[in-house]
Write a structure and sequence with these properties.
The chain is mainly alpha-helical. Among the domains are: 171-229; 232-260. The chain is 88% helix and 0% strand. It is built from 13 helices and no strands. The relative contact order is 0.01.
Length: 271
């Protein structure tokens, strides 16, 4: 045996010894049984891999690699912290629920509803444009003040009252009101042309300057107070005689007689 053959045999024995030691260690800690089970699993998978399954797995792997490449190029890794935050605080669930709601709304939007919504939106924009051009924004402070002090409710009540009156205005009532207004205007014209209005104004001015009406009202008030404080009259001739012989009664009668005399003189002068 040559030296090279001896070295090879020694190396082989050493390798066999190491392999035996490794197998012994695998058998001792149970790894050998796991390797056997794994080999059986791979063997079963290899037996079940038909050409169709291999093709589908290859296509799936290719799609997965393409998706991973697209995700890497799109920079989705930068969005992972934000997505993790959404998941932690529950906002992602809310976004999913909102997406479902929007999807349901979109599914329920028929052509008729879309047309009606478009018409409503167009009418709303037209109304907003008219309100903006009319300068209604300048009236908002006044409207706010009316709402605050309750005058707006009074205006609404007044409008309802006027509306009720307008609804109650039949042709007959309108005709009668027109006739009444016409007669009133004729009467006012006659009073104005005859000079009675001027005389009434002059008389009212004289009465006001002479304090005649105020004195008359005050006299009536004092008479009522005096009569309330006096005892009830006894009646009879004696009581009447006492009233007639009173100086105040005689003065009042004389004043009334003098007034009537002057009135009769003035009336006689006018005839």
């Amino acid at each position: 045996m040559s030296a090279s053959s001896a070295d090879l045999a020694a190396a082989t024995e050493a390798a066999e010894a190491r392999a035996h030691a490794a197998i012994t260690a695998l058998a001792a800690n149970g790894d050998l049984d796991r390797l056997v089970a794994l080999a059986r699993v791979f063997g079963g998978v290899g037996d079940s891999l038909s050409d169709d399954i291999v093709t589908r797995l290859s296509a799936t792997a290719a799609d997965g690699m393409d998706l991973l490449d697209r995700a890497n190029r799109s920079g989705i890794a930068k969005a992972l912290p934000a997505i993790a935050t959404l998941v932690e605080n529950g906002d992602l669930d809310r976004l999913v629920a909102l997406a479902r709601v929007l999807g349901g709304v979109e599914d329920s939007l028929s052509d008729d509803i879309v047309t009606r919504l478009s018409a409503t939106a167009a009418d709303g924009m037209d109304l907003l444009d008219r309100a903006n051009r009319s300068g209604i924004a300048k009236a908002l402070p006044a409207l706010t003040a009316l709402v605050g002090n309750g005058d707006l409710e009074l205006l609404v009540a007044l409008a309802r009252l006027v509306g009720g009156v307008s609804d109650a205005m039949s042709d007959d009532i309108v005709t009668r009101l027109a006739e009444t207004a016409s007669n009133a205007l004729v009467l006012i014209d006659r009073v104005t042309r005859s000079g009675l209005a001027d005389r009434l104004v002059t008389l009212a001015d004289q009465v006001e300057r002479s304090n005649l009406l105020a004195d008359l009202l005050q006299a009536l008030e004092r008479a009522a107070a005096d009569d309330a404080g006096k005892p009830r009259p006894a009646g009879g001739i004696g009581g009447l005689w006492h009233v007639l012989t009173s100086a105040e009664t005689q003065a009042a009668l004389r004043y009334a007689a003098t007034t009537l005399g002057h009135f009769r003189t003035l009336r006689a002068a006018r005839t």
